[in-house]
């Protein structure tokens, strides 16, 4: 299933949605409609409003939501529950993580295009949670940078507390997958000599629009990934080309950093970023950048000055 956090234009309250085709249904309203139709619903679903409630309950929560979608009463109740077209809601980040850990140079071709040797071990840096952004929300160009770049990436959402997990068991600790744009102010990144400020500015971590649960993705290392600028493909690769797999990254990070439910790992970007093009192609006001990943959807953000 695909879960999203959203709000309507009439209300600023966070709501939990589940995608049906090109519509988004409020999970709590669906649960109430099922119950009104004589069906069964877990009590907590009647008022659920965020993805953290689902993530923290794990597999049991997913089974209880799935029951809303498959029983006889649900088929009738879905018509009574509120469904919204995607363009009728304001998407929020699909999760509010306690930390966003990102991986540098995790595709060989990206390392090469920047003149660096492929890393021997994962290069881990922190994207600040204050940089979190959402689908369709603007990336704001800061006055302190003139070299703002894009990076299309797969995001991993952690499902349970993870400490010193083995690589073999690592994916069992993943709740699902999303899309992230590791927006980067290159002049700050290279000028500072470290990456925190250049990659942690406000609006520099668009995430979403959905979390696709892990059961929907049989092989996370076999997904096509693209980054498009104003409709033109700038990045095109496959997650099979990662140097360090998702399972390896979760295990590696957890050896010294405890991962909490809802935490996000940005797994690195393929080649084709703007700064290494000749001439460079950097984000400017009026642009739209999209991240698309097979089976996960498309994350789109306009750029504003």
Write the layout of secondary structure elements.
Elements: E1 2-8, E2 15-20, E3 23-26, H1 27-36, H2 51-57, H3 59-70, H4 72-80, E4 83-85, E5 89-92, E6 100-104, H5 108-113, E7 123-127, E8 132-134, E9 139-140, E10 148-149, E11 152-158, E12 174-181, E13 184-185, H6 186-192, H7 196-199, E14 205-207, E15 211-213, E16 224-229, E17 232-238, H8 246-254, E18 264-266, E19 288-293, E20 297-304
Helix pairs in contact: 1-4, 2-3, 3-4
Description:
A hairpin with a 3-residue loop joins strand 19 and strand 20. The chain is globular, with a radius of gyration of 19 Å. It folds into two domains: 89 residues, SH3 type barrels (Roll); 210 residues, Fumarylacetoacetase-like, C-terminal domain (Fumarylacetoacetate hydrolase, domain 2), CATH 3.90.850. The chain is 21% helix and 31% strand. The strands form four sheets. Strands 1, 2, 3, 4, 5, 6, 7, 11, 12, 15 and 18 form an eleven-stranded mixed beta sheet that branches. A five-stranded mixed beta sheet has the order 9-20-19-16-17, with no helix packed on it. The protein has a two-stranded parallel sheet with strand order 8-14. The protein has 305 residues and is of the alpha+beta class.
């Amino acid at each position: 299933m695909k879960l999203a956090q959203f709000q309507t234009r009439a209300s600023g309250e966070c709501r939990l949605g589940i995608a049906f085709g090109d519509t988004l249904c409020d999970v709590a309203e669906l649960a109430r409609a099922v119950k009104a139709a004589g069906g069964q619903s877990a009590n907590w679903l009647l008022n659920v409003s965020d993805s953290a409630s689902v993530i923290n309950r794990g597999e049991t929560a997913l089974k209880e939501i799935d029951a809303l979608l498959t029983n006889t009463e649900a088929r009738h109740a879905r018509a009574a529950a509120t469904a919204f077209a995607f363009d009728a809601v304001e998407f929020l980040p699909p999760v509010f993580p306690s930390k966003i850990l990102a991986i540098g140079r995790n595709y060989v071709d990206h390392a090469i295009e920047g003149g660096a040797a492929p890393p021997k071990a994962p290069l881990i840096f922190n994207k600040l949670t204050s940089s979190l952004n959402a689908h369709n929300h603007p990336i704001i160009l800061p006055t302190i940078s003139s070299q703002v770049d894009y990076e299309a990436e797969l995001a991993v959402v952690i499902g349970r507390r993870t400490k010193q997990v083995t690589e073999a068991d690592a994916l069992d600790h993943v709740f699902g997958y999303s899309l992230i744009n590791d927006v980067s102010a290159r002049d700050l990144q290279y000028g500072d000599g470290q990456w925190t400020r250049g990659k942690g500015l406000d609006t520099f971590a668009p995430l979403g629009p959905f979390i696709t649960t892990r059961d929907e993705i049989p092989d996370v290392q076999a997904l096509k990934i693209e980054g498009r600028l104003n409709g033109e493909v700038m990045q095109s690769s496959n997650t099979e080309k990662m140097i360090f797999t998702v399972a390896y990254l979760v295990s590696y990070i957890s050896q010294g950093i405890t991962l909490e439910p809802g935490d996000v790992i940005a797994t690195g970007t393929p080649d084709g970023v703007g700064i290494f093009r000749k001439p460079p192609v950097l984000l400017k006001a009026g642009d739209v950048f999209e991240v698309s990943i097979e089976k996960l959807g498309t994350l789109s953000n306009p750029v504003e000055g």
